[in-house]
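Table S4 entry, Fructose-1,6-bisphosphatase class 1.
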Amino acid sequence: MGHNRDDPNPEDPMLAIDPALIPEHLRPVIEAMCRTGAELSRVIAKGPLAGKLGAGVGENSDGDQQKALDVMADEMFEAALRGTGVRYYASEEQETVLTLDPEGGYALATDPLDGSSNIDVNVTIGTIFSVFAAAESAEASFLRPASDQIAAGYIAYGPQTLLAVTFGAGTMLFVLDPDSGSFVLSEDRMALPEAAKEFSINASNRRHWTAPVRAYVEECEAGREGAKGKDMNFRWVGSLVAETHRILTRGGTFLYPADARPSYGNGRLRMVYEVAPMAFLVEQAGGKATDGTRPILSLTAEELHERRPFVFGSAEEVDRIAELHG
Ligand code: AHG
Ligand code: MN
Ligand code: MN
Ligand code: MN
């Protein structure tokens, strides 16, 4: 029997994930993320039976429209992380950092619900999280080199509910077993293939792209007749979690570049909630992640909600994209 949100039983010995696979100090944090992810996956599986999950309810500080499920997910993770050792909680859906436990040792940043344009159409959505050791202030805890992360993960709510997580020693993959309510290890070391057969970019922005991005996409489109000498297929889901999971599984490249529009001068994706954690997961699986040229893990966020151009995936392709920027 899994945990039931309406009927919590502190005596229930059932854990949402095998603690032996999680560094001891992070167990309460990861357990809370998994338990809440499992609860959220049940809400998502109900779709319209759980209410108007995709209804617009406001705007967040990033200027994104907030959907009912964005707010619900944020409230669930915030509540679940209380008492787990998280001192600072930063969320895409909140303007400022919350202090959950003044004595806690961790700072956790999350995109509680990624891919919110896909809520109403039964396409994979997700949760992304990033963990740092708490520093002397909220700002100092998150505005630091991405390489300081001690853990990062995503939960994908799709045909399967999955957890990919890294603690800096490879990227592990877990699948939520609906019978037990627990995440079960399915791969202890994900390996992102070095070569790619697929690329991903929002092609509706083509007219705004920079010359190097245009050159790369043209190379992909030229297929076996062009410089690449091989055909490349194209995919765009519109959920970073789904895109990342596909690329971790079978290779590929993803680009959300800076473009000529003033509001896309740093692309669309947020450094603290999306780019840094995905870069950590990708690199731990043997892939590469850059802002076009520089490794994301070498970069420092200057503002909580800042955006960063993001390129990641198979090493050969990410290197080629950097070369085209050279
Ligand atoms: P969110 O739903 O958390 O705001 O994130 C949406 C992001 C990301 O998931 C995806 O890669 C990208 O926005 C999709 O962008 P387009 O709207 O340009 O397709
Ligand atoms: Mn959003
Ligand atoms: Mn997102
Ligand atoms: Mn989101």
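The chain is about 25% helix and 25% strand.
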